[in-house]
Design brief:
By secondary structure, the chain is mainly α. It contains 8 helices and no strands. The longest helix is centred in the C-terminal third of the chain and has 40 residues. The radius of gyration is 20 Å and the shape is globular.
């Protein structure tokens, strides 16, 4: 029974890999757009441009994270059925994807902060925050799966919590900076030119990052279709 439950849990988590890669690729791409746009402002020496870009980017990335979260929460089962997920894996996979999606807004925030800090030349700090979140993720996995006897849902909850920790850490740093990269919550708004610049850079990168997941999805459908044709 333990071996079977482990098989179901691993199968449920593995069934979501393509979708998780697709949505994380979207958010990573937006973070890359932020990086380029902020670096441009810093290179021009325009504090106002950097400030507008930072605050617009945070809202854009947070909105992208919320949107992908909602898509996963409301369309988890249809998307997994589209991937021909086995019926025995489906309940666990749907629950895992919905719970994992709760961390996607945090991933958007973290990738935005990572883009801002990387543009300033600070690539170490985001890595440290990511390392802390990774260690926490492992610890929480042990606590939820072994200590609380949870299955795939425990892994998803641990991942979501770790994502929010990394987002909070990077936001605390940005809110306490003393330069033009400082984030002030009362200044959050969409600045038209800054938002347009981030989207023009981030969307193509996002599409490029997600292309492999889409290709994998199409290939899996083709292969499964051929296998079904052969078996029939």
């Amino acid at each position: 029974k333990y071996a079977y439950n482990t098989y179901i849990a691993l199968g449920a988590v593995g069934s979501t890999t393509t979708l998780v890669s697709l949505f994380t690729g979207l958010l990573i791409g937006m973070g890359a757009g932020v990086n380029v746009a902020v670096a441009r402002g810093l290179g021009m020496g325009s504090d106002e441009d950097v400030e507008h870009t930072n605050h617009s980017s945070l809202l854009i990335c947070l909105s992208a994270g919320i949107l992908t979260c909602l898509v996963c929460v409301f369309f988890a089962e249809p998307m997994l059925r589209l991937l021909n997920t086995k019926e025995e894996f489906l309940p666990g996979a749907v629950l895992y994807l919905k719970l994992y999606a709760l961390g996607l807004p945090a991933m958007g925030i973290y990738n935005c902060g990572n883009g801002i800090l990387s543009a300033t030349g600070d690539t170490k700090r985001p890595l440290v925050y990511l390392f802390i979140a990774g260690v926490l993720n492992v610890v929480l996995n042990l606590v939820f799966v072994i200590g609380c006897n949870m299955s795939a849902e425990g892994v998803a909850i641990a991942s979501a919590i770790a994502q929010w920790v990394s987002a909070i850490l990077i936001m605390l740093h940005l809110m306490h900076r003393k330069d033009c990269c400082r984030i002030c919550l009362n200044k959050l708004r969409f600045h038209r030119l800054a938002s347009k610049r981030v989207l023009l850079i981030g969307v193509p990168i996002t599409l490029s990052n997600s292309a492999m997941s889409i290709i994998t999805l199409i290939d899996s459908k083709i292969v499964l279709g051929r296998l079904e044709a052969i078996s029939s």
